[in-house]
Design brief:
Layout lengths: L3 E6 L3 H10 L5 E7 L3 H11 L3 E3 L2 H5 L6 E4 L6 H10 L3 E5 L6 H14 L3 E4 L6 H11 L6 E9 L19 H17 L5 E8 L5 E9 L5 E7 L8 E5 L2 E5 L8 E6 L3 E6 L8 H13 L9 H18 L5 H4 L2
Parallel strand pairs: 1-2, 1-4, 2-3, 4-5, 5-6, 7-10
Antiparallel strand pairs: 7-11, 8-9, 9-10, 11-12, 12-13, 13-14
Helix pairs in contact: 4-5, 5-9, 7-9
Pfam family, one: GFO_IDH_MocA_C3
Family: Belongs to the Gfo/Idh/MocA family.
InterPro entries: Gfo/Idh/MocA-like_OxRdtase_N (IPR000683), Gfo/Idh/MocA_domain (IPR050984), GFO_IDH_MocA-like_dom (IPR055170), NAD(P)-bd_dom_sf (IPR036291)
Length: 331
């Protein structure tokens, strides 16, 4: 069994979740970490027994021992850091959202093809077995024909002392960080992209969207509606409504480990898929499987789908008047 050596860019909170999941893998090895803060890099390396620590990203990208790099920095850094790693010929797993705008993700996907490397957006929900089970239930006709999907996702981040969602230089706001999930899951469930998008939202004086509401109509005549908020504490559930019942993904629906199936009379089944670790393990294993197979991306989350998600968010941003600074929008 070939061991896959991983490097991590950005040893923050989400990288800790990722590292904990990787510790349970039989073939993944955390071999290096890169951080602009030498202190944070050293502390992260000590906690997870990582042999190599770099204080610049170029050095990690050029490390011949590293097979794949996980990028876990804030949104605004994704494009330049992923581009750097891909140009160095590295496989890349890039934390969501892939980029700030569609032009950036299109460049990265083309670069991955040119370099003949694996490049994957890390929308963890798309790799979870519970989602596959839900899709199978729908295909089996358990809830009849889907009519619409509705969801909310949000937290009262303004009560926290500091938060990156209120920093426009980091690509902050509710849409890119939270709204991505209902878009990505609707895309997976319906198997198509919207033909009509209607959005409303309030852009704060800090130039981030605090609450955004989006309606999407699909070519099949089905709908998806969601609210994302960085200032309101939402129920955080998703309901897939059909002609003969519905399926509910309860609180924290993006952490897809349970689904409740209802028919016309009430609850008929609860599907439980507790994570072996914390939910990140699925995308880790799928990434390594794809690297072994010489694939550029996983069929569970394709490049076209990643581009489609960012295009939708570009349209929403245009409608609500959300524009980030030229520095992070640049290609």
């Amino acid at each position: 069994m070939k061991i896959i050596n991983w490097g991590i860019v950005g040893p923050g909170n989400i990288a800790n979740t990722f590292a904990k999941a990787m510790q349970q893998s039989k073939r993944a090895r955390l071999a290096a970490v890169a951080s602009r803060s030498a202190e944070r890099g050293q502390a992260f390396a000590k906690e997870y027994d990582i042999p190599a620590v770099y204080d610049n990203y170029q050095a990690l990208a050029e490390d011949p021992k590293i097979d794949v790099i996980y990028i876990a920095t804030p949104h605004s850094f994704h494009y330049p850091q992923a581009k750097l790693c891909l140009e160095a010929g590295k496989n890349v797993l890039l934390e969501k959202p892939s980029t700030i705008n569609a032009k950036q993700i299109q460049i990265l996907t083309e670069l991955a093809k040119q370099q003949n490397v694996f490049f994957q957006e890390a929308i963890w929900s798309r790799f979870m077995p519970c989602l596959a089970k839900v899709k199978q239930k729908i295909a089996d006709g358990v809830i009849g024909d889907i009519q619409y999907i509705t969801s909310t996702i949000g937290f009262a981040f303004q009560h926290r002392d500091t938060n990156r969602l209120y920093d426009p230089k980091l690509g902050g706001g509710a849409l890119l960080d939270l709204g991505l999930y209902p878009i990505a899951l609707s895309q997976a469930i319906l198997g198509e992209e919207p033909s009509v998008i209607q959005a409303m939202g309030n852009v704060s004086e800090k130039q981030v969207d605090e609450t955004t509401i989006v309606n999407m109509q699909y070519p099949s005549g089905r709908y998806s509606q969601f609210t994302c908020s960085a200032s309101g504490h939402c129920p955080n559930s998703m309901t897939i409504v059909g002609t003969d019942g519905n399926i509910v993904l309860p609180a924290m629906f993006w952490d897809t480990d349970q689904a409740q199936v209802f028919d016309l009379e009430g609850l008929v089944e609860t599907i439980d898929f507790p994570h072996a670790v914390n939910g990140f393990e699925y995308q880790i294993e799928e990434s390594m499987r794809c690297i072994d197979a010489g694939k550029h991306y996983s069929d569970l989350m394709t490049h076209d789908e990643s581009i489609g998600i960012i295009k939708i968010m570009d349209q929403v941003r245009s409608q609500i008047g959300l524009q980030f600074c030229a520095e992070i929008e640049a290609i």
